[in-house]
Design brief:
Layout: H1 2-15, H2 22-35, H3 40-60, E1 78-91, E2 96-104, E3 107-114, E4 127-138, E5 141-146, E6 151-155, E7 166-175, E8 180-185, E9 196-197, E10 201-202, E11 205-216, E12 220-226, H4 228-235, H5 239-244, H6 249-257, E13 261-269, E14 272-281, H7 288-298
Parallel strand pairs: 3-5, 12-14
Antiparallel strand pairs: 1-2, 1-4, 1-12, 2-3, 4-5, 4-6, 7-11, 7-13, 8-11, 9-10, 11-12, 13-14
Helix pairs in contact: 1-2, 1-3, 2-3
The chain binds zinc ion.
Length: about 300
């Protein structure tokens, strides 16, 4: 029945953020099918595209009002923000040209710039006005997508970004060398190799414990640094016990982390996320790569 087809089209449009009244869909569908004798499949496709394109054209030349990052509280909205690029992650997906964090005086938000946007590359520490980005919601947080309707303008202005903890959700894929028990120069606190500080030569050292690792969320990778207290918890042993009982701490760390999903929360320093909190979670609920391809095709 035509009512059922109308509902189907309505649902499909809704999924893509477009709200259309039932009667509008129905009258257009009846026109095509009953007046012009267009076959059902073709009519459905035509009506769906008609409303999608209509919205697309409407939004194209519009510049949404500038908002502060903390005020982004709805998905599927077109927004303009002014912010400083804090971090760029290595993109792991061919549809993505850049992925990272942008911040303003009120907060920090993740952004994804699609390759199909043909936008210029953003650089860390530079400030940009990003016009007409689209808000999205993923794993409990808002993010923005930069597509081909987005405009980017670099401006000569500095922004005091509100420092806030960021979080990264992914699987641990690698533990780097220099993890486990390390020895720090008592003068400069740098880690020392074979008792030699690169600044102070042969020195007395203090033992410490840390993990340098790599997390992967399917579309980017993030270097993380886990300090002593958290490492002790993961290894279920204190630094003193590890040394005195000669515990194979690297093996314990690998067992605790590799191949497992975590939400890592902390501060972004250079290319590292200095982890303050680490929470293990079940595997990411659905294939994010699939979702990304779906999103990319929509643009
Ligand atoms: Zn030193």
């Amino acid at each position: 029945m035509i009512e059922e087809i109308v509902e189907e089209i309505k649902e499909r449009l809704k999924e893509r953020g477009v709200e259309v009244e039932t009667f509008e869909i129905e009258s257009r569908l009846r026109l095509l099918m009953e007046e012009y004798g267009v076959p059902e499949d073709e009519a459905v496709r035509s009506v769906t595209n008609y409303f999608l394109k209509d919205i697309y054209v409407d939004r194209k030349d519009e510049t949404p009002e500038e908002v502060k990052i903390k005020d982004i509280k709805e998905e599927g909205r077109h927004v303009t923000i002014k912010g400083k690029i804090l971090t760029l992650w290595e993109s792991r997906h061919e549809a993505i040209s850049q992925i990272g964090l942008i911040g303003d005086e009120t907060g920090v938000i993740k952004f994804t710039k699609w390759k199909s946007s043909n936008l210029p590359d953003l650089e860390v520490d530079r400030v940009y006005v990003v016009e007409n980005a689209v808000t999205d919601f993923w794993q409990g947080r808002y993010n923005i997508k930069l597509n081909r309707n987005t405009r980017i303008t670099e401006i000569d202005e500095d922004i005091e970004v509100m420092s806030e903890n960021i979080s990264y959700t992914g699987v641990f894929v690698k533990i780097h060398d220099g993890s486990g028990v390390i020895h720090r120069c008592i003068q400069c606190n740098r880690s020392v190799i074979d008792g030699e500080c690169q600044e102070h030569g042969r020195v007395a050292t203090n033992p410490d414990l840390r993990i340098k690792a790599v997390m992967d969320d399917g579309r980017s990778v993030q270097d993380v640094l886990i300090r002593r207290e958290l490492t002790e918890r993961l290894a279920a042993a204190s630094l003193e016990e590890i040394i005195s009982e000669d515990i194979d701490v690297l093996r314990r760390i690998e067992e605790a982390l590799i191949g497992k999903y975590f939400v890592a929360e902390g501060r972004e320093v250079g290319r590292y996320l200095i982890v303050e909190n680490l929470k293990q979670i079940d595997e990411v609920p659905y294939d994010e790569a699939e979702q990304l391809i779906y999103e990319a095709e929509q643009i």
